[in-house]
């Protein structure tokens, strides 16, 4: 979902604000229920300006990979192996430009080149993480015998070893091989679109554009924060919406760690204890499995005896899918405890909600540093993440929530970030102009707006 959602937002923005004809190659079968539901809602809301092109994948044998491999990484591998099948899909769409994902760059770029179609990458994380991805192959070449060390991004800043995604510690891991290959492939793209804005990440964006990170890097278009698609509203408001409506302004702590990772049972119970002890109202989206279709556990069993009864009234706890942007723009929400997946960060910037960053894996520590640098919130660097031992105690969680909720400066800085984000997306703003330049390039290449 972290990759899918911004593609839908970009497609709708190109179709509506910039008058483009857009087709989305929809990979089948889907992995999660949330993915399938989101796609159905997207095409219902965006038709006819955004068309659906079904893209069935070639047969893929998962048994050749280690048991328990991340199903979403396996899906990317299946997509990579199916890339040659994209040629006929491009032809059927009559495409004058193609936008692909970083995770597919090294295999999709040659297909587009063979068809004579300009190929761009939509990078769905931060500009700082884009700089890391682009520079990492050179870092690997220079430190082949040293193992994982701090990564000094030229013109940006140092990414400490502790913030490097754990999968990259193993040079033979198939994710690492994908990551390095795609990083090398970026220089062959016609341009890179990034879901961020100049005022939020000036160092990283400027370093990429000026060729400091990688010489002769393609043009970088900062086009964010890409705003949510307006889906057809439900006949009845969701239960969490009705609950939020009854809460005072800026009184609710919203807690969500995204759609990709589950939290251990022990850490769930410590988090529950911390939320309860904080004394604040909270809306908590609990995730216990990697794939939502596998989730059958009961909330009462997960969160400890009597927890739900004790917090009844001042809390809303669910395992269901929520429309996060609807929650973040609600006036009762005063703090977002987030893993710092990039969609969550950009939504918080758009609505000015302070973030208490608790990164869990992957790019999230790099993104959390962007949150702190950009004035959107605070980051607890000592709090454990994926594959690290130790628990963050409920006492620590409660103390940090109390401190951030009581700090008016945090709220003021987040509001300033919101205003800067709105200015970037306005018709004369940096992100609007950047996307308009991208559209003009596509028109020049293809002779029409599609």
Automatic annotation (TrEMBL):
The keyword Ligase does not apply. Transmembrane segments: none annotated. GO terms for molecular function: UDP-glucosyltransferase activity. The keyword Cell cycle does not apply. Pfam families: UDPGT (PF00201). Coiled coil: none annotated. CDD domains: GT1_Gtf-like (cd03784). Keywords: Glycosyltransferase, Transferase. Belongs to the UDP-glycosyltransferase family. PANTHER family: GLYCOSYLTRANSFERASE, UDP-GLYCOSYLTRANSFERASE 708D1-LIKE. This is Glycosyltransferase. It comes from Digitaria exilis.
């Amino acid at each position: 979902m972290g990759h899918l959602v911004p593609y839908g937002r970009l497609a709708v923005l190109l179709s509506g604000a910039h008058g483009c004809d857009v087709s989305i190659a929809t990979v089948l079968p889907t992995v999660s229920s949330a993915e399938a539901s989101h796609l159905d809602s997207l095409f219902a809301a965006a038709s006819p300006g955004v068309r659906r092109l079904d893209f069935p994948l070639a047969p893929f044998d998962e048994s050749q990979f280690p048991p328990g491999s991340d199903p979403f990484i396996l899906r990317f591998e299946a997509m990579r192996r199916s890339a040659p099948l994209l040629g006929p899909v491009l032809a059927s769409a009559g495409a004058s430009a193609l936008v692909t994902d970083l995770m597919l760059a090294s295999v999709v770029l040659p297909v587009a080149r063979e068809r004579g179609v300009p190929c761009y990458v939509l990078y769905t994380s931060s500009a700082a993480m884009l700089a890391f991805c682009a520079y990492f192959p050179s870092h690997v070449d220079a430190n082949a015998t040293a193992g994982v060390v701090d990564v000094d991004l030229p013109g940006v800043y140092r990414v400490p070893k502790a913030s490097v995604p754990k999968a990259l510690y193993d040079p033979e891991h198939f994710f690492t091989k994908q990551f390095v290959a795609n990083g090398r492939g970026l220089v062959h793209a016609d341009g890179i679109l990034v879901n961020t804005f100049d005022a939020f990440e000036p160092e990283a964006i400027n370093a990429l554009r000026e060729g400091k990170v990688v010489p002769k890097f393609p043009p970088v278009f900062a086009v964010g924060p890409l705003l949510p698609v307006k889906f057809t509203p439900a006949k009845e408001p969701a239960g969490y919406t009705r609950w939020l409506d009854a809460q005072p302004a800026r009184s609710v702590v919203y807690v969500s760690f995204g759609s990709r990772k589950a939290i251990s049972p022990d850490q769930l119970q410590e988090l529950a204890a911390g939320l309860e002890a904080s004394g604040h109202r909270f809306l908590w989206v609990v995730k216990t499995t990697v794939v939502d279709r596998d989730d059958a556990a009961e909330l009462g069993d997960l969160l400890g005896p009597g927890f739900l009864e004790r917090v009844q009234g001042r809390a809303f706890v669910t395992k269901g899918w929520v429309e996060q942007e609807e929650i973040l723009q609600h006036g009762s929400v005063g703090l977002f405890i987030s893993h710092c997946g990039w969609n969550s960060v950009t939504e918080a910037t758009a609505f000015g909600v302070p973030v208490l960053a608790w990164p869990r894996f992957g790019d999230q520590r790099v993104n959390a540093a962007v949150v702190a640098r950009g004035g959107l919130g605070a980051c607890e660097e000592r709090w454990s993440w994926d594959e690290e031992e130790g628990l963050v105690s409920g006492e620590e969680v409660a103390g940090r929530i109390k401190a951030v909720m009581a700090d008016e400066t945090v709220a003021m800085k987040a509001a300033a970030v919101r205003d800067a984000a709105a200015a970037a997306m306005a018709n004369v703003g940096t992100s609007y102009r950047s996307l308009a330049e991208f559209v003009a390039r596509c028109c020049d290449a293809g002779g029409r707006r599609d």
